[in-house]
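One chain given next:
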Amino acid sequence: MAHVTEQLARRRRTSAPKKRTGCGTCKIRHKRCDEAKPICNICRKTGRICDGYIDPSTGRQFGGHADRNSPFLGIGPRTLFANEVEAQGFRFFETATEIQLAAALRNHGWTPPLLQLSHQDPAIRHAVIANGIMSRRYQASEISASTEPLANNLSQAALQQYCKAIACFRSQLGSNLDVNSPSLETAPACFVLLIMFEFMQGNASGLIIHLKHANKLAATFGGSRQTQFFIDLLALIETVAALWLNLDLSPADASPCLQELNKCPRPLSLPHGQISLYYDLSWINDDVLKWRHAVASAHVDSMTHAVDPKSFCAVSWRTIQSKLDTWHERWATRSPNEEDSAPHYYSLLRVNYLVTVLVVDAVHQRHLSAQPIQNEFTHSREPPKLDYFNEIFKSVAEVLEAGHSFSRYYPCAEEGPLEAAGLLPLFSFRHSFIQPLFYVAQHAPQASLRQRAIGLLMEKPWREGAWDSYIMGSIAKSSLGGIAGMH
């Protein structure tokens, strides 16, 4: 009987979940590390050099032998890296950034083995390191605006790696014109990494350039399943760009056809009566994204659509308007309650409803007038819904003045793995106060209101998921400067 009990106990130990927190040497040897500090007992007993451990919240290395001569570092050989900065960037991507990216791309099909590809391709390797360093920089300081020396040094190191990735990638594309060449097989992964970096850096123009080139390259690929996954991912990234930058990319730039979006609402821990309102507004915004893309693509080639684009746009506009009206009627029956754990969520729903109405109006006007969506207010004689712009600004200003804290994680937004590891949800888009205020900063008819919104975004920066108020304020400021220069 004792023998049977011992066997059962041994089976239970064998089936225990694997850990990713062991020392670097045990990880590469696929051994279960006892995680003794500063040097694990397995390395000590076998006479191996212990590479030490990585703190997933900071990316910093600790423990291990002072003179580490092990030929391995994380999952990659030490000869891959020119210095310790590159090694740390790679390790942080392995232990942190890859988890953050996986949380954002969950259920979207395209999951390339980025770490394995980095062993074969120098462009991907430098891009992986750049993203690892940049995400570590955000762990050091959550917002873009920072006076911390560590954060600024990491930004410079990340930019150097990014430039190396660009140089290698251009060389590959220039010397290998055959679309079946090995370097072009890894091009999709490299493009996604470059787009990720530009997003984290807040470089809107750089993100758009990479996305356009990726779309053009995807058009030269064959019709494999993996290629379709990549094209679908580019369409998803384009919708994120439209949301992030409040603009649509021109279909003339080889914009991919947007597939059916998976409804991925990001509910907050809201008071019970507001949960369904949050879900419903998220679903309405999914419809707006699909409709917005259809309007932008309608004049390219109607044969690529299952229905006539003009008819589709008109029906969608009426449907969306009806849903918004119904949503607002339900919202109006509720009022903020002093007993609510987070009463400013009432304002959160209101400002996101207002910005949705403004976006729908802008897209509808573009559909009717065929004017670029970025300039519809510039050409309009009577600015539409000016009071909505003012209300958004006033509501956000009041919330900030009241000193309400913003949740770093959303309990129901599939961010559990990030919260458990103490990692920022760098690529998680949710309803926020930043995005509506950014819309005001970019599109308000009055330049003075735009300037006030920019000031509110940049004066005391804050973060809500992927939204960084300082980055958004900087983008809006650049846009406002360009408009001023034209007048």
